[in-house]
Design goal:
Keywords: DNA-binding, Sigma factor, Transcription, Transcription regulation. The protein has about 270 residues and is an all-alpha fold. The protein has helices at about 5-10, 15-30, 35-60, 70-85, 95-110, 120-140, 145-155, 160-170, 190, 200-215, 220-230, 235-240, 245-265.
């Protein structure tokens, strides 16, 4: 299901309730000082609940020549980091925050050994499809295509397109002696190993934005989604929902102001 479809559903699902329960568990954890018996008990409860997540993510790398138990231990390091850093006050689901942290730890484990990680075949195929679509659309439009345009051209869901682009970049293989970039004069990729993964901030921001959008009134949420996910103009939105363009403009401005307050500024992605 797409982000847009998720947010258009008003009814709370079992997953929503489970996410709320997990947030409450973290709030209880934060009430106790580190080392308190109850702190240890709640922490262990969290680890036990998310052990299947670690096992599942580690299983994705089962064919890389590493023992399953070793990969799970590396994944547990990522889970510990996620538990330590997670802020339940942001209102985002813990699993959405923990998953990239755990995957990042496992991928770092391979990178530290100089092993290349190949993307899944489905990602490779979609990347090739998107590269061709990007070339066609760039020539036709005279500019780089948007994600929504790539999705429409390929018949794919926008979420699939975003995932393929992000995964393709994450899986790029480079020599550790290769310069890190034009602005990183004198630095090689090997020098950057172990640095904090700034893309985790992007994931956290996206989850926070999704939660903030879900809290908007249904009409305002629909306007925001149509404008930014559906690439509709304000006039088109006004016609679709039966109000004036001026009213759409006011509702959109008010909604965006609310989102800025709840989410804050978008994290820098280096682009």
């Amino acid at each position: 299901m797409t982000l847009t479809a998720d947010l258009l559903v008003d009814e709370r699902t079992a997953d929503d309730r489970a996410a709320d329960d997990q947030l409450e568990l973290f709030r209880r954890l934060r009430r106790y000082p580190e080392g308190h018996p109850e702190w240890w008990r709640i922490r262990e409860e969290i680890f036990q609940q998310y052990l299947p997540l670690v096992r599942g993510l580690a299983g994705r790398f089962a064919q890389r020549g590493e023992l399953k138990e070793d990969l799970q231990q590396v994944g547990m390091v990522g889970l510990v980091k996620a538990v330590n850093r997670f802020d339940p006050g942001r209102g985002i689901p813990f699993e959405g925050y923990a998953t990239p942290t755990i995957l990042g730890e496992i991928k770092r484990h391979f990178r530290d050994r100089g092993w290349a990680i190949r993307p899944p075949r489905t990602i490779q195929e979609l990347r090739n499809e998107l590269n061709k679509a990007r070339a066609d659309l760039t020539q036709r439009l005279g500019r780089s295509p948007r994600v929504s345009e790539l999705a429409e051209h390929t018949g794919r869901d926008p979420e699939e397109v975003i995932e393929a682009i992000a995964a393709g970049e994450a899986y790029q293989t480079r020599s550790f002696d290769q310069p890190a970039g034009e602005e990183d004069e004198g630095l090689a990729y090997a020098d950057l190993l172990g640095y904090e993964d700034e893309q985790l901030n992007v994931v956290e921001y996206r989850e926070a934005l999704k939660a903030a959008l879900a809290r908007l009134p249904a009409r305002e949420r629909r306007i925001v989604l149509l404008r930014f996910y559906g690439n509709r103009t304000q006039s088109q939105i006004a016609e679709e929902i039966g109000v004036s363009q001026m009213h759409v403009s006011r509702l959109l401005s008010r909604s965006l102001a609310q989102l800025r307050v709840e989410v804050g500024a978008a994290p820098a992605t280096g682009r």
